[in-house]
Amino acid sequence: MWTNLTEVYDRNYIEVPWNDNITLRVYYNDTLNGDIGLNESDVTYSAAIPGKPALYGNFVEDTIYGWYNLTLNSTDFYSRGVFILSIIAYKLNYELQEIQITINITQIHTSLISNVSMIDVYWNDNFSIEVTFRDIDNNLFLKSSTVSYTVLGIISGNFENKGNGNYSLTLNSSFTNAFSYTLRITATYSNYETQDLFIPLNILPIKTLINGRISEIIAVSYYVGTQHLIPFNYNTTDGAGIIDARATYDWQKAGGTFYPGIIQNTSIDGKYILDFNTQLKTIGTYSLAIKLEKDNYETRTATYIINIIERKIDADLDAPGLKDDQINIVKGIRCCVPT
After folding, report:
1. 293 and 235 inside one domain
2. End-of-domain residue from the set 181, 204, 227
3. For the whole model, what pTM was predicted?
4. pLDDT in tens, 76-128
5. Under 8 Å CB-to-CB from 68, ≥6 apart: which residues?
6. Could you give the 3-state DSSP secondary structure of residue 75?
7. Which helix (H) or strand (E) holds 158?
């Protein structure tokens, strides 16, 4: 006999989030004798699932003739995806009917919230960050997720699970050099929407001082032909001496060419000495630019304005053989004071 099989809402496509129920109600009837519901029929369902056993079973017959009910949970399909559910109704001596419904199981919507929007940290200091991962469809905290981080492929790892959807991370910034980076945080949970956060991470150079100051300009005068040891202290702002810095200088006579050089590193942490000898320099004004620098530390500079001046010589020329208290000196000829 002629029959018909319909789904109550006449749907051929159903979209449902992961872990939600799918409720189906079908009507199997005899259309030849005036829409008579067929009881005691076999109404079955099946769905092929790649890599898993097929899903199949029976609808439950309703108390009203011709009606059959089924409730599935989307987890019965093992994973998210699109599946074809076939429903077949049959009764002896009646026409077999089949309908197919496309089931689209979607991921659950989530949110990932951080307690900071930007991180500024000095090199070799620790910084901390906390995030919360939630199922926003059901207003639940995701307690067993994987929350990972990476910084430009330089470093990566996982957050610590603190419970109740909260995850925390503490890192020392010395894993790379002082610069501006992006900290990427990824939260995943099977069949839930993956979330990414991108947090600007600014690793700042350690604050420093030169001779207890940010910079300095000093003017000094030295006699020609003399030697001077000019000391420099390169320290952090808390007073710790910085060893193995690059200590260099450039000097020039006013309006002349710059000449580079290296400043000596002493055995005392943070102390550097420039051995400045005026013996080979002519009288005049010189500019001496000092630079102290080290990776991940602030560079500091000092400028010395050095005036090289004539040496003053005091002599007692009171000798009996002098004429008018005067000595005549000729280049290349030895002279002596007559007695």
Report:
1. yes
2. 204
3. 0.74
4. 999 889 999 999 999 999 999 999 999 999 999 999 999 999 999 999 999 99
5. 25, 26, 27, 28, 41, 43, 59, 60, 61, 62, 89
6. helix
7. strand 155-158
